Amino acid sequence: MSDPTSLYTDDTLFDGRLLCRQHQKGYRFSVDAVLLAHFAQPLPGARIMDMGTGCGIIALIMAHRYNETFITGLEIQSALARLALDNVASNDFAHRIEIINGDFRNIIQLLPAESFDMVVSNPPFYSIGKGRVNPASEQAWARHELNGDIFHGMKSASFVVKNMGRVCVVYPAGNLTRLLAAMSQAGLTPKKILPVYINPEEERARLVLVEAIKNGGEEMILQAPFYIYSTKNGSYSSQMQEYYR
Question: What domains sit in the chain, N to C, each tagged with a CATH number?
Answer without folding.
Answer: 28-244 (3.40.50.150)
